[in-house]
Design brief:
159 residues; alpha+beta; 9 strands; 15% helix
Length: 159
């Protein structure tokens, strides 16, 4: 979304729109569903542009266990200060149109919401064996019978 810099003043300008990105921006994100941005943009007392928005939506990502594409609901809040003297300002600013593109900022924050590993299944539904492998649960260590009285004393002290 491009915003004219001349329209950003000290009063808050409301932002409310759906987000659409082309697929393939990130190898972890397979797509976006019903992603919505709501917030505002304004110039603060230091004459910096301040962007304050909430993003809610669904990411389509791979399940860590099954590798199927599953929805992942996310919500994030952005409070970004954009200083026109900052060297990174040129990344968002289009000089010939005097506009500010906030979509790269929104995309960067959506990418930060991607979990490292995610499974839509609960631990009870996980596959516990397969061809050539089996999940083995760790057993409690057995206590040497000669040290059983000592272990009992330690358990009594904990109570």
């Amino acid at each position: 979304m491009k915003i004219e810099l001349s329209k950003i003043n000290h009063s808050k300008t409301d932002l409310s729109f759906d987000v659409y990105f082309e697929e393939g921006y990130n190898k972890d994100i397979k797509g976006l569903e019903s992603t919505y941005v709501n917030g505002y943009i304004y110039r603060d007392y230091e004459d910096q542009i301040t962007l304050e928005v909430e993003i809610n939506g669904k990411l389509l990502i791979e399940d860590s266990h099954t590798l199927e594409t599953v929805p992942f609901t996310f919500a994030t809040t952005i409070k970004e200060k954009i200083n026109e003297t900052d060297p990174n300002f040129a990344e968002y600013f289009e000089k010939n149109q005097n506009t500010l593109d906030i979509m790269p900022i929104i995309w960067q924050n959506i990418v930060l919401e991607v979990p490292i590993a995610y499974s839509s299944q609960s631990d009870d539904n996980l596959i516990k064996s397969g061809q050539g492998w089996e999940l083995v649960e760790e057993e409690k260590p057995k206590i040497d019978p000669r040290l059983a009285p000592l272990a009992k004393l330690l358990d009594d002290e904990k109570e």
